[in-house]
Design brief:
The chain has about 450 residues and is an alpha/beta fold. Helices cover about 45% and strands about 15% of the residues. α2 packs across α4, α2 packs antiparallel against α14 and α7 runs antiparallel to α10. The chain binds zinc ion.
Length: about 450
């Protein structure tokens, strides 16, 4: 059989136009398994032709419509035609775009100011469609630039892609996200009860390019949650002039305003909550992530268990077992002083344990080291502990585990250490921005608003 594909365009004034878009031949006598239906290569050719037909008709329609002077309704003269190269997801086309003479109707004298108008220029300032730009950035933030180029070329009839063009596009889209979000009006706080915001923070370590004199770069990633919305973010502090104002934009987008409470949940690293403090410009409630505490308690419990099993153990088991178990309960309920006291007693009891057995000494040392570890962790974060039990019963978050998902999604999928790629602060920052926007579904939205 033979298949002919024809497109019919109906313009707004009622006229129609037909284009032959493609032709397929499927002689049944020679049909192979590979010849059933539409193949990728056929589809790419047809898509390309289809795009060409639609694009040309659209340009024709827009050009004709923009010849009418908006002031006097006269048809303006065409100055000349300029050829423009247009990059789309379905191919690169050279189109002829008219330039239109300005009308003299509005001028006081007969002198017409300004050069000819180019009606198409405003549609494609970058000479490529927003959809193509978005897809290049989205894939570039997920796969290596080379791979992103390969994926695009495999599935769509776009022009030849190279890794550098994907990289440059990602950079441009990242800059656009910044620009759009900075000019965007802040969500008006219509609610009388301001929504409390919780920021979950974590850091991802990625390999740094050698010329920056250090091995690793820190990407700050996290999630901001209000009662009904959430938003991810990622940034490299060295790559932006003011990381705090960058974060402030993200907080604003979720309805933050001066005077509203912000709760930060992260591990003991002071740099992360300090970043939020800088963004908010004031007080921030920092809560230590429960999981990091729980893990340290677990280490003590395991070490004590090990000690009790040692043959040469000569102490009273319950003196060691009880404090180790109580520790978790006290910390969970925010009884920090009691917890530290029982921690100290555990250390004292360990020190008193007189034994000559080498294995026992080793086990005692292990318990002591784990206790000291938790003790200094608590001492450094004394102000950031809370009654975790009560918080959880109230349905409030107690763990930054929600940010850990962001570490994987924003940091590690593209820039993880296993991918063996080294990053500059700027490059990493761009990928983080675009990745966060993609995950939130903001990239499409931003482009639609920009195009509108
Ligand atoms: Zn006019």
């Amino acid at each position: 059989m033979e298949v002919r594909i024809i497109v019919e365009t109906t313009f707004e004034n009622g006229t129609t136009k037909r284009h032959r878009v493609g032709y397929l031949s499927r002689p049944f006598r020679r049909t192979q398994p590979e010849g059933f239906g539409l193949l990728l290569e056929d589809a790419k050719i047809i898509l390309r032709q289809l795009q060409n037909a639609i694009l040309r008709d659209q340009i024709e329609e827009i050009s004709a419509a923009s010849r009418i002077c908006p002031d006097c309704d006269k048809v303006r003269a065409i100055h000349d035609y300029r050829s423009r190269v247009l990059d789309t997801l379905f191919g690169r086309f050279k189109v002829k775009a008219p330039r239109i003479r300005r009308c003299a109707c509005n001028a006081k004298s007969d002198v017409v100011l300004g050069g000819p108008l180019s009606p198409l220029a405003r549609f494609f300032p970058d000479r490529s469609t927003p959809e193509l730009q978005r897809l290049q950035a989205e894939l570039g933030a997920r796969y290596s630039f080379r791979e992103a180029a390969r994926i695009l070329e495999t599935f769509v009839p776009c022009a030849k892609q190279v890794n550098t063009s994907v990289r440059n596009r990602l950079g441009k889209v990242a800059r656009n996200i910044d620009a759009i979000e900075q000019t965007e009006p802040v969500v008006a706080a219509a609610v009388e009860d301001p929504p409390a915001l919780t920021v979950f923070l974590d850091g991802a370590h990625i390999r740094c390019r050698p010329e920056y004199q250090k091995r690793h770069l820190d990407v700050v990633v996290g999630k901001i949650e209000s009662h009904d919305k959430c938003r991810r973010f990622g940034l490299v502090q060295q790559a932006v002039l003011s990381p705090a104002s960058q974060l402030r934009q993200d907080l604003r987008a979720l309805g933050w305003d001066r005077g509203k409470t912000v709760t930060v949940i992260s591990d003991g690293e002071p740099a992360l909550p300090n970043l939020v403090r800088g963004a908010v410009g004031g007080k921030v409630r920092h809560i230590l992530d429960w999981w990091h505490i729980s893990m340290r308690i677990q280490h003590i419990e395991n070490a004590v268990k090990g000690l009790l099993q040692v043959r040469g153990f000569s102490g009273i088991p319950v003196l060691f077992k009880r404090p180790a178990e109580a520790l978790r309960w006290y910390l969970w309920h925010g009884k920090v002083l009691t917890a530290t006291t029982s921690l100290q007693w555990l250390m004292v009891d360990c020190a008193r344990l007189g034994t000559d057995d080498r294995v026992a000494i080793e086990a005692v040392r292990r318990v002591q080291a784990r206790c000291r570890d938790l003790y200094s962790y608590l001492a450094n974060n004394m102000d950031n502990l809370t009654d975790y039990g009560r918080r959880q019963r109230a349905g409030l978050p107690i763990s930054s585990s929600r940010a850990e998902g962001c570490v994987d999604d924003i940091g590690n999928t593209r820039m993880g250490k296993r991918r063996r790629m080294r990053w500059s602060p700027k490059g990493a920052h761009r990928v983080a921005i675009v990745r966060a926007a993609v995950l939130d579904g903001r990239l499409t939205g931003a482009y639609q608003r920009a195009a509108a």
